[in-house]
Amino acid sequence: MFWVALRMLTGDTAKYLGIVFGVSFAALLMGQQMAIFCGLMRNTTSQIRDVEGADIWVMDKSVQFVDDVKPMSENKLLRVRGVEGVAWAVKLYKGIGRAKIVEPLTPPEKTSAGGLKPGEFQQVILLGLDYDNKDAAGRVVGQPRPDRIVAGNWDDLDQPDAVFLDAFGWTYLFGLDTPFELGRSLEINDRRANIVGLVKCSPTFQTFPILYTKYARALRYIPPEPKTLTFILAKAQDGVPPEAVCQTITARTGLKAETNDQFFWTTIGYYMQRTGIPINFGITVLLGFVVGCAIAGQTFYLFTLENLKQFGSLKAMGVSNARLIGMVMLQAAVVGVIGYGLGIGGAALFGLVFETFVKGTPPAFYFGWQIPVLTAVAVAAIITLAAGMSLRKVLFLEAGVVFR
Fold first, then answer.
1. Do 29 and 142 share a structural domain?
2. How many C-beta atoms surround the C-beta of residue 275 within 10 A?
3. Total structural domains in the chain?
4. Which among 197, 232, 331, 400 counts the fewest CB atoms within 10 Å?
């Protein structure tokens, strides 16, 4: 009987392909939009994920997300270091600066298209790392992993006015096809910043270029302020849960302390609650679900109507309703599996093509395992609704209809 059901399904090629197209389009739209949404949310937490070595973030109690900078006095660092369970704590400066492009070394006729012209300003994210205190391995807390160094040597930050620039920031400032050239400079707050290397960073939500430098040097690039400490990065002692240390720091100092994961979800929660991004993408995903239900449901219903005589013949031969339900659900399952595979494959291919061939701004596209699973659940609901619309006709069908 199942073979008969498949023959009935593929008998009308146009309607069969119409059902598959409806499910594929729904899966493609839902998968693609969810991947872009997850990519945008991950971009909001890029600097939390890029910080290496620390497992606790300490900040002002009113900070709501990673870009909500509320400076603290530097004596807070000593209070955090004195909390039980804290192995070490270091300073981190994070802020926004205005960088000006100075005259390039490369002759203008050889420069790449795009980028900013000398004298133009661009906002940049400035990260100041605490070089006076390193972790047990001798590395600066917060510096990117060695495999993320694209050009230069991290020790070159010991040079005067040296900064590291992220690779995307280089293409944004100096042009897409401009190769890295040692000696390019920026001016921040009328102070020169010499680019000594490039580092690969995770894309940020604002897509601003990112500059790494020493903590004391970063303070020279900003206007004088009474409070300059933005974050404290800390490490829990061996055997002590970071969550417990966070609670102790909050109780002893009055500051907000969160683990990397907690701060990650705090930042995402802020954008989920305070922006229209979830609603906008949710509407698009819901639209894909509704369109899939409409196309697949209507086409599947018409397909069943045209095959009522075949179902009536099977009933006249003694086939039970349960067997007929199994046949219809098999047809729906075959359509759903094929449509889901084509749709989710198209969504993944979209992200791959976008990331491979589109130059410039890194794509906000994250195709985690949750997306195929959620899309599969939605497709299962679509085909179940589509099959349910046509089952009523099959179940209440009289066997004598075949003789009329």
1. no
2. 12
3. 2
4. 400
